[in-house]
Input
Amino acid sequence: MQTILIAGAGKSSIYLIQYILTYAPRNKWKVIIADSDANLIKEKIGRSTSAEVAAIDITSAAQREPLVIRADIVISLMPPHLHIHLAKDCLKHKRHLITSSYISDEMKAMDGAVKKAGLMFMCEMGLDPGIDHMTASKIIHGIHRVAGTITSFKSYCGGLIAPDCDDNPWHYKFSWNPKNVVTAGVGGAKYLSKGKEEELPYEKMFAGGKKVQVDGAGTLAYYPNRDSLRYLDIYEVPDIKTFLRATLRHPMFCKGWQVMIELGLTTQDDVVDAQGTTYASWLKKKCGFTGKGSLQQFISQKLKIDDDKVIPMLEWLGIFDEKPLPAGRRSSADIVLGILLEKWQMAPQDKDMVVMLHEFEYLHKGRKTKLSSSMVIEGEDREHSAMAKTVGLPIAILARLILNGKVIPPTGVVLPVMPSVYRPVLTELAHYGIVFKEEVE
Output
């Protein structure tokens, strides 16, 4: 009997767990699901007789390591900073590992030892990163086969709210880790534009009003996503002049969030004492309100806001209200997160929408060609979200293919950019409606 350890039973786990449990009886798998919340696990497993509940503290080696020892393969959906605990156990006990998160420096440093042990630590195997790597690599390898020279690659992805459920002025609701949304872009971004390396600081991340048209989703805004340059070698595009990975949002979201940044409301470096403080007094202090005119007018003039929809967006959040802050000391970013957890919460019947777009430009026999590849998927409801589907299924499918001997695990700390991985995974994802539409001009 083979055993799978799934660490994490949160927002993104439902499709992954359901997929694994569907295949478990016929494959005689034991599926251990570990999380700090036993109720979360029980919600996900239903009446499955293949599942085992493990309510543990993942940071406790005494609780965690025995589960890793029992496993043939380990899947981690834990917050990124917790993967390393499982990674060290997997290396020690020679177990393959799959995660959906970006490769951390700590994980990257393990590459040599992981290769030597003949193990696979497959990272960035979710949506973005994940499906983006696989679909982009498939196109890149196809262009290379016909001796094409890729000159430009832009990849965009966003987790949004479906149009039918878009009922707030920010045109956004949480379909994944809320804190990651609030801290998005904090580290700045790097990318390649017309042969020049560009670096964008957090303070300008959401400014500029850059937009892109996506078939089936309309006009969306985008901002650069982290360090695109680190993928140049991985994607094997030595002659490329433009290389950008970006995140999609509604245009008004970007306008509103840029104002939040300029007001200092998203900083994690200050400390706000709630004693005697209201949302309005916190905002006044942050923006240096002089007391002349209304707070709304002051902010509009100070930041030169020229869109009359932005201030109502801020008012909708309640930050102009003379309502006391929750007790305690916290950063401004934490205050904002508390507001948004309520305001941007999906209702049970709400549907999210995942949008991905790749834009390529390449030369073939002296002719310039443009190729676009796009995907738009809506979720079923809050629990069965498009985000959970596109993050969880690639991981689950790869795990099954490896356990069934259909895929030979590539060794090292790797990404899913090799044909032996992306071909069978993308083929099966298509059976679940995760497909791309291509256009060439």
Notes: Residues 2-127+385-434 form a domain with the Rossmann fold fold (CATH 3.40.50.720). The first helix runs from residue 14 to 27. The radius of gyration is 23 Å. The longest strand covers residues 149-161.
